[in-house]
Predict the structure.
Amino acid sequence: MDQHIVIIGGGPAGYVGAIRAAQLGAKVTLIEKDTLGGTCLNVGCIPTKALLASAAIMQHIKTAGQFGIKSEGISFNWAEIQKRKDRVVKKATAGVGMLLRSRQVEVIKDSARLSGTGKILLESEGREVKYDKLLIATGSQPVTPPIPGIDLPGVLDSTGSLALDEIPENILIIGGGVIGCEMAEIFSTFGSKVTMVEMMPQLIPGEDLEAVEVLYKALVKKGMDIKLGTRVNGLIQKGHLLTAEVIEKDGSKINIEAAKVLVSVGRKASIQGLGLEEAGIALEKGYIKVNDRMESNVPGVYAAGDCIGGWLLAHVASREAEIAVENMLGHDTIMQYHAVPRCVYTHPEIASAGGPAARQADKDILTGKFPFSASGKASCIGELEGFVKIMADRETHQLLGCVIAGPNATELISEASLAISSRLKLEDMIQTIHSHPTLHESLQEAALNALGRAIHLP
């Protein structure tokens, strides 16, 4: 008899888990209260990258003079840019629906709540759905910090910032993480005066400091005012503007006026109202606690994606869900995090894989670095900022981490991620012939440099 797997949440964890479960022969029901695709496809990764693509074209046109191309008098139509973004999102979410239908996955649009062992209550319909195994994949939502005035009109979260019908003359961004930096890139490129306030001493806290410094300098060069080690103490409305009281590093106070304020200080699990406590499902720091097979403490109940904390990345969520359903259906697979790629789609881009795990393991590390200023392809395309940095075990030469700041970093990182995941060595990357002229050569050069053998560095 087929196992009946019920999945709550239709985002990158839920829908991928549903497809994998169907491939393995299970009967699958997916419950989603809103739109298939979750945060990523609807109000996260996909719409953000669609807007960033428009911004990238605008940026290229602005700098076309260096290529001998005249670009005076350029303009943009924000309404058309938004319409294109909406088309991209609609295509992505429709594609998810088609994939689920093709695997005979039953999709129910409703809110779900655990209602006893092996049962889910559909709140709108008032009926129960029975399951053999359950995957909770309800994702995350923006955190609202306890700042006075945070609920004033004109204060936006990431979802609201993607739906603005016009570019604000100026905008204050609270939080210098990935979302804050990417939205800053979009608004600045299309003419907003951007001020960013970040409590930590660097942008994108936790990311490689050298890589972040490349981005910081580029954003400041574009005219952004970035205040590190500072915090917003409160917001008040003055006419059509918002005024933020900001506490600077030295304790002094300044006021910043802006037409809009974007709050992007992090995310939290969307697990409210699921009945987890009543079902006895253990939480840890506000997230569902699971083991490396994605099992909760309750037999037959698994969880994956943002609701379990950790990376809060769509691609990680998808892999966690695959691991979960494979284990539900008799396989024995373990989730591996040692080579997770992490991407920031600003200009320049930042991407990394591994690295933190290597440092935590307290290994003696070899580091090799190659600047894009020494890359022939980077010179051809006029993208000389940044570098590739590779880390390996000093004794075994096994690749442990890679950081890239610069052109196409978010694409280049895949080679490094595959190499780290496969536990390859510096010599494996060196012996692989890389085509010329490409940006990919920079990874080979960084590996060579780690062994003191760089060819294209003096």
